[in-house]
């Protein structure tokens, strides 16, 4: 059965401005991969991330480079060795999962042994001045789980402002590698005082050994420090949880292995995302069915999503429809 691979760059406007410690953006630039066979097509989406040395152009080239292998019949398992972990492999891997579901008539959820149900996703508040973050938190105070972007020398005022504005919400803070050895202890104490559930990647990847010698007053989750299954063993002394993102693992196939190994090691699990469309969230929504935290609000941050897209009611995310993926 001959298969054909195509990939295109697309841009989706963000509602307002999305800001983290490394900068701001007004649109989500994604790559959509389509693999077709017997008149059916499977799709996958990835979001190249400059923090990991990825550019849209290079990721697109990496996807198109495996076109001959796909045409020759390379499957998901073979793709794991033909492509490195990252955004490009994610798009190809998820497109193959989707195509397999269509060709066999067996949904991905069924193949995984999952009966999908609605899950609660975090809703992200961009980094801004404390007053602006308090206003955003107040506007979303009805949401059960907020994820707050931090990463400044004065995040204590931001944590206090958000907690005061959203007293009933559970809160994750994400420093995006923006804290330092000098302010880590102060921020941890304030996080504990403000009843923060989880702190994501406080220190730069590669400079996080300090966490093994720090009293972790609030559980700490690795993001930039963890990409694939092989990374997990070396993180157990410094992190309590890991953020699994398909754009880091290189797709659902590796993410499933990583999730199982994280569980075996006793690590908590968040399933997260880059800012992308419903097509990128759909496979992650199946991965997130039984994890500790889901952070799959990408489409909620966009001014325009794909159609059909995922259904959200507030912070409740419903299982992906087959017309979208899987």
Describe the overall structure.
- It contains 11 helices and 14 strands.
- The chain has 326 residues and is an alpha/beta fold.
- It has 2 domains: 4-106, Enolase-like, domain 1, CATH 3.30.390.10; 119-317, Enolase-like C-terminal domain (TIM Barrel, Alpha-Beta Barrel).
- The strands form 3 sheets. An 8-stranded parallel beta sheet has the order 5-6-7-8-9-10-11-12. The chain has a 3-stranded antiparallel beta sheet with strand order 1-2-3. A 3-stranded antiparallel beta sheet has the order 4-14-13, with no helix packed on it.
- A hairpin with a 2-residue loop joins strand 2 (23-37) and strand 3.
- The protein is globular and about 60 Å long.
- It starts with a strand and ends in a 9-residue tail after the last strand.
- Its EC number is 5.1.1.-.
- GO terms for molecular function: metal ion binding; racemase and epimerase activity, acting on amino acids and derivatives.
CATH architectural type of the largest domain = Alpha-Beta Barrel
Biggest beta-sheet profile: 8 strands, parallel
Order of helices and strands: EEEHHHHHEEHEHEHEEEHHEHEEE
Number of distinct helices: 11
Structural class: alpha/beta
Beginning-to-end CA distance, first to last residue: 20 Å
Helix content: 25-40%
Which strand-content bin applies to the residues? Answer: 15-25%
- Topology, number of strands: 14
Taken from the alpha-carbon principal axes, the silhouette is: globular
